[in-house]
Design a protein that fits this description.
Elements (H helix, E strand, L loop, with lengths): L1 H13 L6 H25 L1 H11 L25 H17 L4 H33 L6 E5 L6 H4 L5 E3 L13 E5 L11 H7 L2 H8 L1 H8 L4 H5 L13 E2 L8 E2 L1 H8 L3 H10 L5
Antiparallel strand pairs: 1-2, 1-3, 4-5
Length: 281
């Protein structure tokens, strides 16, 4: 879904009138907003079935206290902003670049690449947040394991196989495609991915590209992957309390990540707040 939405974003961006950037992009935004919201809705709607299937395969009871409200996670940016406002940012960055002397085509190309990253990230984040909401709603699911997808960057590789409690947020960088794999304490080892094994599965060229030439050489020489990569560099977590006014009515509502943080490990309280703010029904 992320690739489909990103493809549509690129198609619409290519229709932008360079002579009327702001007006032109505003006229194209409703179509992109519809596509992106639909993609978020689709990936979020998969969460309950995904959790049930994975937990059942591990012999864990998938009984839930509520079901994920996919609509509550669609049409909103993962940092709580209005999605339409976020999608307008590439036009703003293009105009700022032009004002600073960047050639129009170069400014448009750079902003288009940013739009692609933005759209893919928002779809992936909707899916990840939905998975964590579904995990919280299932008392027998103790936590999750972080798993790689395809060729992953060094920052993600050193976190592969790490187990997190159900209430721990999923740190990610833009375009991160790592997954939550629900796992209870005594079955998590069956699902782990070894960062060293992942590194050794890559060709030398891929190692150099994903870990940098110097970093890859150090790892090949026996250096610890985590120390070479410095896993937290560039991975973001929004600070403070995270709210959104999107789909919230007159009062702001807490974002799911903020709810888990404020529940402070109390699963019943987390479930209560998720239900209160419309994330589970």
């Amino acid at each position: 879904m992320a690739l489909v939405a990103a493809g549509e974003a690129g198609r619409l961006w290519s229709q932008l009138d360079p002579g009327r950037i702001a007006v032109s992009w505003r006229s194209l935004l409703p179509r992109l907003l519809t596509v992106l919201t639909g993609a978020q809705l689709a990936v979020a709607a998969r969460a309950d079935g995904y959790l049930d299937e994975v937990l059942d395969a591990q012999g864990v009871t998938p009984r839930a206290v509520g079901r994920v409200s996919a609509a509550a996670l669609a049409g909103v940016a993962s940092d709580g902003r209005d999605l339409g406002g976020l999608l307008y940012q590439p036009a703003v960055s293009t105009l700022v670049g032009i004002q600073r002397g960047v050639p129009v085509e170069q400014a448009l190309t750079g902003a288009g690449a940013g739009l692609n990253m933005l759209v893919r990230t928002q779809v992936a984040d909707a899916g990840r947040v939905a998975d964590q909401v579904a995990l919280t709603a299932r008392p027998q699911a103790g936590g999750y394991v972080r798993m790689l997808v395809g060729a992953s960057c060094g920052r993600c590789a050193v976190l592969a196989g790490r187990r997190y409690e159900w209430s721990t947020g999923f740190e990610r960088h833009p375009r991160c495609d790592c997954l939550h794999i629900p796992a209870r304490e005594d079955t998590a080892d069956d699902l782990r991915t070894d960062p060293r094994r992942y590194f050794e599965s890559l060709t030398a060229a891929e190692q150099d590209r994903l870990f940098t030439v110097a970093g890859a050489e150090a790892i090949r020489s026996g250096a610890d992957i985590a120390q070479v990569v410095n896993a937290r560099r560039g991975v973001y977590t929004a600070g403070g309390r995270k709210f959104t006014r999107t789909n919230a009515g007159k009062r702001p509502r807490l974002m799911p990540e903020q709810i888990l943080r404020e529940a402070n490990g109390d699963r019943s309280e987390a479930q209560r707040l998720l239900r209160r703010f419309g994330y589970i029904t």
